[in-house]
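Retro notes (design track)

What went well: tokenization of the new backbones is finally stable.
What didn't: we kept losing track of which sequence belonged to which structure.
Fix going forward: every design gets posted as structure first, then sequence, in one message. First example under the new rule, 287 residues:
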């Protein structure tokens, strides 16, 4: 029999078990499994119970391409086009930041602070894939939820996620509070770009694949606080009396953020730690 070249072998139909075995030679075992299940549209149980199930030539080719992209460092969520957050599944594309587990802390703090009024007004500034607005709308169906982003492409992803989860969120395109007129809110949440310019993390761990405008404020040599500063500075004109502003920030920014909140007249200022013990969310209340 004529030996097959590796290129031909890659495109030949294979069983899903063999495909998983081959993929984990190149990438992390769990990532390999998830990519096989994604391409074969099968569950983990099916992969284990029926490893002989064949992939078509097209599926084999698709899997090879995804494994190669993962091996080059592209985040798994972009390859699967999906990411979990706070128990829900969200569509993600390279136009949005991949949801991070530490952002779940912001959801919990927000839910604890929602006022017991018939229809609390919530705004999520820099909504990206919509995770904060949509999760809060799911947990608090009586709220009126607005979400803002500068990126029209991100808003398309967020709108699709809101439809998928059956929640009504008003999406607005623009620069922080600008599209909101003089509206006031009982709760403002934001996970703005906060990575300092030149931070070495921007060059590794999949971050080069994420939208730059979701990560940094674009200020050459900036400390990463420009967006947080803009949001805090105008919060007085958009918080209802007693309303809360909650912001996610970088691991070393809590002192600076509390100082900004104080300088702009907020009260009950505090920072809260994430599961890693890092002060990750800071906030304050209007008088
Ligand atoms: C760190 S991402 C957060 C996305 C999402 N909220 C999350 O937690 O995964 C920041 C978001 O802010 C948006 N953004 C950046 N500058 C903005 C601005 N001036 N006005 C509104 N949104 C902005 C980006 O497009 C991005 O979607």
């Amino acid at each position: 029999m004529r030996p097959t070249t590796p290129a031909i072998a890659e495109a030949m139909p294979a069983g899903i078990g063999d495909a998983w075995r081959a993929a984990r030679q190149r990438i992390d075992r769990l990532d390999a499994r998830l990519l096989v299940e994604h391409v074969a549209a099968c569950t983990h149980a099916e992969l284990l119970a029926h490893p002989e199930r064949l992939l078509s030539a097209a599926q084999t080719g698709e899997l090879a391409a995804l494994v190669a992209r993962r091996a080059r460092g592209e985040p798994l969520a972009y390859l699967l086009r999906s990411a979990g957050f706070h128990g829900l599944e969200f569509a993600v594309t390279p136009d949005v930041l991949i949801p991070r587990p530490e952002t779940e802390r912001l959801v919990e703090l927000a839910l604890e602070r929602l006022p017991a009024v018939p229809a609390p007004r919530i705004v999520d500034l820099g909504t990206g894939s919509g995770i904060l607005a949509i999760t809060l709308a799911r947990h608090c169906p009586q709220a009126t939820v607005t979400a803002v982003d500068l990126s029209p492409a991100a808003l398309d992803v967020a709108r699709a996620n809101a439809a998928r989860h059956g929640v009504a969120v008003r999406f607005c395109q623009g620069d922080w509070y600008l599209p909101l007129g003089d509206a006031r809110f009982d709760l403002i949440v934001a996970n703005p770009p906060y990575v300092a310019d030149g931070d070495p993390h921007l060059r590794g761990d999949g971050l080069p694949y994420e939208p730059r405008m979701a990560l940094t404020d674009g200020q050459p040599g900036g400390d990463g606080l420009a967006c947080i500063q803009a949001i805090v500075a105008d919060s007085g004109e958009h918080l209802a009396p007693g309303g809360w502003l909650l912001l996610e920030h970088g691991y070393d920014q809590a002192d600076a953020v509390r100082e900004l909140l104080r300088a702009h007249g907020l009260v009950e200022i505090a920072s809260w730690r994430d599961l890693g013990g890092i002060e990750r969310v800071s906030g304050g209340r209007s008088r």
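Added context from the reviewer: The longest strand covers residues 239-248.
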